[in-house]
Amino acid sequence: xxxxxxxxxxxxxxxxxxxxxxxxxxxxxxxxxxxxxxxxxxxxxxxxxxxxxxxxxxxxxxxxxxxxxxxxxxxxxxxxxxxxxxxxxxxxxxxxxxxxxxxxxxxxxxxxxxxxx
Amino acid sequence: xxxxxxxxxxxxxxxxxxxxxxxxxxxxxxxxxxxxxxxxxxxxxxxxxxxxxxxxxxxxxxxxxxxxxxxxxxxxxxxxxxxxxxxxxxxxxxxxxxxxxxxxxxxxxxxxx
Lengths: 117, 113
Fold this sequence. Notes:
The complex is a heterodimer of chains A (117) and B (113).
Chain A: E1 4-7, E2 10-13, E3 19-25, E4 31-38, E5 42-51, E6 54-57, E7 65-70, E8 73-78, E9 87-94, E10 106-108, E11 112-116
Parallel strand pairs in A: 2-11
Antiparallel strand pairs in A: 1-3, 3-8, 4-5, 4-9, 5-6, 7-8, 9-10, 9-11
Chain B: E1 3-5, E2 10-14, E3 19-21, E4 24-26, E5 32-38, E6 44-50, E7 56-58, E8 64-68, E9 73-78, E10 87-94, E11 101-103, E12 107-112
Parallel strand pairs in B: 2-12
Antiparallel strand pairs in B: 1-4, 3-9, 5-6, 5-10, 7-8, 8-9, 10-11, 10-12
């Protein structure tokens, strides 16, 4: 399912570098999320956005920032990357408010594997 | 606060055997419950979800899950596992009207021929 795309898919960078991960979606969803996945820890929420003007911190937002450039685009930035930010990063979207499917069903992109040396 | 526990980190089964993956949650009211699957190198795909109504939920790929309020559980089952089911499985809980999910730490399923 290519409705949620992430770029790049893989990235190796050095400590102290600024890096941006991008997420685009064609599902028309209002809500977008950034997670990181670490072995044994599952997925943890970094930031989420309910619309272009509504951005919220998740449980592990320190060291990250986000930008919601449009309904379809949600970028995650690491201003000064550090090795413990090495992880698999996922973007997700969820259905519009009032949808008959019910809230909270999230659809995930393929992930970005980030390595910070 | 919401939480999700998947007590089994790694499960190994033979192809054709039945499967049950455990999920326990902590939440003060009736939650939304989900199972996602992550194949190697892939993103997460929704297997099934429970919002309300019938406590036995059918999903894709022949999976089902049963919501048991008395046990705070939402275990995933499949009667006959296929080699292609080898993946990592995540249980998640969402509080109504918050639009955030809390994920368990995952169970890695290995299938032997």
